[in-house]
Write a structure and sequence with these properties.
This protein is α/β, with parallel strands linked by helices. It has 14 helices and 9 strands. The strands form 2 sheets. Strands 1, 2, 3, 4, 7, 8 and 9 form a 7-stranded mixed sheet that branches.
């Protein structure tokens, strides 16, 4: 009965829900808290959709994993229990092979390079892979650029990483990346990182500037190097089950406004990064901004050889690198 109730309030929902007189209410899930750039961008999208549809269509945003953790939210969206989801690419790596390629270290030269790739033909190609798993891509958001930070010394060149211990996510790619750079990977839960750095279990970790800031890790690891080894796109997707219930006009509207929400999210994210960098520097952290990434990129050759194993994926890597 509980599942049936959830199904009834998803997809095309009649008036009388929390959204008031809307004919259609779309429930959108996010793991990030209220105020986070992805959450605010989908709220902006909701305002635009409501205005452009004359109040017929509303989007109700549920932040902070209110509808479940990311993996559960994705599955519920695939089954139409939830209508929309903002998710990272990681959970799709084993489902959509192309997402594993854009999750490789140093595949993108910069955030701008990532945006051009994902907003162009390659992004459209990857979107087709999501459709095979009952998800319609509305746009690609920015998951930020992950970089190294540690408590010992500024990292200005690849040799500085030799023998150092870094926490990484539970990912074979990340473990292999650290090995290729001459460092030691220590997978562990995110919540254990602060105390592990403080007590010397690890020397440091890697993440984007807002996470480095909000986690308080800058208090125990004052050296942050912007090597940007992972620049991650994220996906905003609609359930195919919900999509099929919409009229062609409403489908076009959601595609239009979903695409328009992308630069809104990216602008909010860029502002958040600047804010966090300024905050940690004011607190005494040292940010190394100017490094030669070429040796770091060259060191990834065995990692790419291990994970880019088919002609199709090799071609995709070549096309990404060729994108200007």
């Amino acid at each position: 009965m509980k599942m049936m109730t959830s199904l009834l309030v998803s997809g095309a929902v009649l008036a009388g829900t929390a959204a008031g007189a809307c004919e259609i209410t779309l429930r959108s899930a996010d793991t990030h808290p209220a105020g986070y750039p992805t959450v605010e961008a989908v709220k902006w999208m909701g305002e635009q959709v409501k205005e452009k549809s004359g109040g017929r269509i509303c989007i109700e945003v549920f932040p902070a994993s209110e509808l479940g953790e990311e993996k559960d939210a994705i599955e519920q969206t695939q089954f139409g229990v939830i209508d929309m989801v903002r998710a990272s690419f990681g959970p799709f790596n084993n489902l959509v092979p192309e997402t594993q390629v854009v999750s490789l270290p140093y595949i993108f030269r910069s955030s701008e390079h990532m945006h051009k790739v994902m907003d162009g033909p390659i992004g459209e190609e990857i979107a087709k892979g999501f459709e095979a798993h009952d998800l319609v891509v509305l746009g690609y958001y920015d998951g930020g650029a992950r970089s190294f930070y540690n408590k010992e010394k500024p990292i200005t060149k690849i040799e500085d990483l030799a023998g150092m211990k870094f926490r990484v996510m539970q990912s074979d790619v990340f473990v292999d990346m650290m090995s290729a750079l001459g460092a030691n990977a220590t997978p562990m839960p995110y919540g254990e990182v602060y105390s592990s750095i403080e007590t010397g279990v690890i020397d440091g970790a890697e993440n984007n500037p807002p996470s480095y800031d909000t986690s308080g890790h800058f208090e125990v690891a004052k050296y942050y190097t912007l090597d940007e080894h992972l620049i991650m796109p994220e996906v905003l997707a609609l359930s195919k089950i919900t999509w099929d219930k919409l009229s062609p006009e409403d489908q076009a509207l959601l595609q239009e406004v979903g695409k328009a929400s992308v630069p809104v999210m990216r602008e909010l994210w860029a502002a958040k990064v600047k804010e966090s960098e300024a905050k940690v520097e004011a607190a005494g952290a040292q940010i190394v901004r100017d490094i030669d990434k070429a040796p770091f990129i060259a060191a990834m050759e065995p990692v790419y050889a291990k994970y880019v194993t088919t002609p199709e994926l090799q071609d995709l890597v070549a096309r990404i690198k060729a994108t200007e």
